[in-house]
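dumping this here before i forget
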Amino acid sequence: MDIHHNSGQWRRLRSMPGPVYRIFSLRYDEMENPRNGHSETMIVLESPDSVNVVAVTTAGEVLLVRQYRFGTGSYTLELPGGVVDAGEDHGAAARRELEEETGYSGDSWHYLGLVASNPVFMNNYIHHWYVEGVTLGAQQKLDPSEAVEVIAMPVDEVYRRWLAGEFEHPHTVNALLRYFAMVKLS
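structure:
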């Protein structure tokens, strides 16, 4: 079964740029519905791809970060990660983001795959990475707008909290799904 199969092609009648913000820009696409010929303007957020990292220490703990999220107005516990810079490989971005946010690094990296950030109205993807045996070797190098607390949590506690639905960020939930599927199958 092809999950990307469609019964007709949506036709873009025109596309107009919108405002540009710090981490995304708006685009307005007038789209024609192949089912009924109706056209409507859709909003697309254009943004670079991002990465997040399941980083497991030599002591068997997953590195998590607690930070304030303005959309929900609350602190979340999630995996370290961030935006892939222009021209940067997502693997290199994962290594850079892990070290910048946590001060940790490691050598045994595994790609866990990607997921669309939110295909309803966004055009970017999040790449999930796993690195084992990370050690602290540097200080955090946070952006001026970041305040990140690093928390090392035993893998079994992360698994329990993940199953209990305690992680809110969908990118973290998906990366942990892929990580736990990989470690249980290998």
